[in-house]
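Notebook, p. 212. Picked up where the previous page left off. The plan for this session was modest: take the two constructs that came back from the sequencing core last week, fold each one, and keep the raw output in the notebook itself so nobody has to go hunting through shared drives later. Recording the first one now, exactly as returned: residue sequence, then the structure token string.
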Amino acid sequence: MATTTTASTGAASYGDCVAALRTSLSFLESSVSTLGTGVADFPRLVNVLKSVRHYELIPQPTLVAAEASLRGEIGPAITTLLDRADAHIARVERRIDALKARSELQQGRLLHDSPSTPTSTSATASKRKPGSGSGGGSMNPERIAVEAKLKTRQREALQYSVERLELEVLQKERELKKRLDAAA
């Protein structure tokens, strides 16, 4: 009987071992399937994440030739653009000069117009005084002062006219130079 109990205990322990082995096997199969699902996308990820670095050494003469070629291609375009920019800047400067001359001319006109009103009133007043006077002599000090003011204002008006004409001449010269430059 002792051999039967030992055999039954041995069979039970073998049965427990087999059951434990089967449980381990099922866990292992479950782990393999989970790992297989997780790793299934690895080939695609390897290609996506692969970084390939290329280092090529270029000889100095090839580099110089490429630089010269690039200069040859881009150089004329850059020169053309710079010439256009210079021409535009010159055009704008001429326009600024013309506007300054016009502004000075207009300021001169405004300055001339404001004194002309008092000049005309003083001129009419001076013309009235001698006729309305009580027959005083031609050497009346008030009359001499009024005539002096009148002559001063006339001289200022003439100076303004000369300046205005000089500015007009300058403006015409600029326009002529501009037309000649445009024609050339």
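Okay, moving on. Second construct, recorded in the same format:
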Amino acid sequence: MHGDMVPGLLVMDERAIILDIISFLLCLVAVVSNGLITVALGMQWLLRRVLSPCDKLLISLGASRFCLQWVVICERIYVFLCPKATPYNPVLQFLAFQWDFLNAATFWFSSWLSVFYCVKIATFTHPVFLRLKQKVSGLVPCMLLSSVGLSTLSTLLFFIGNQSIYQKYFMRGLQSGNVTGDAIRRTYEKLYFFPLKIVTWTVPTIVFLSGMVLLIVSLGRHAKKTFLSTSGAHDPSAQAHIKALLVLISFAILFTSSFLSLVLGAAGVFPSEELKWKVVAYLCSAVHPVILLASNPRLRAALGRCCS
């Protein structure tokens, strides 16, 4: 009967609403925390006219995450206000263009931050590593420019694909739900967009994990030596290394979870769980800056100077 409620659909609707609320709250946390990092380091740059190489990477990452979350929030608000809008609506296309660039930039900034930490902090004695340790600070501008350049390239490739679909799908007068139009979209998604997404996300992830694994191994060895010394776990150096290890491991877990959720969502694995993948993807942008603010005395000090 038309008046009867379908329990399965009701549960799905309730779960979708809950996941939407969670994702929205995570976006707000990400906006606030990344905004605080960006403002703190930005004010420091304005006052001192200089930023350390590490802070340049941090402010770039914070700013890209801040803008990315606003794009997500705007997209959710627009879809809520215009539920019948198609994916190729001009507004959604504009937001998608921004999301593609900011998401790729966030991946690359995170990856270069991982590399910077690894080279600066790890204690490997290989001559190539020692030479790189001396030069890595001067390479930060190149890291930032390469991040912007690679993100722009991938965004343009996404834009070209979307324009091609638009011309074949809408310029021929095909309507949403049309069998031919849906077939065109599925073909592009399978043969063009999905491989492009995999390359765009996987390359910086490999760079990120390589730097993180090397750094965690180095810090782990050093912490073990300090921990087994006469002073043991009460030694401030050992405690600092353990704290640093926990922060790095949490960053690696969050980043990897975000990457896997994006890949699974793009692959269409468990389509009914798409909202869950989005929530997991937002976790890194929301939780990592909070961990940074809680564990980084320099960031807290910079933030304190801004508030005073």
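Notes on construct two before I forget. The longest helix spans residues 179-227.
Flagging for discussion at group meeting.
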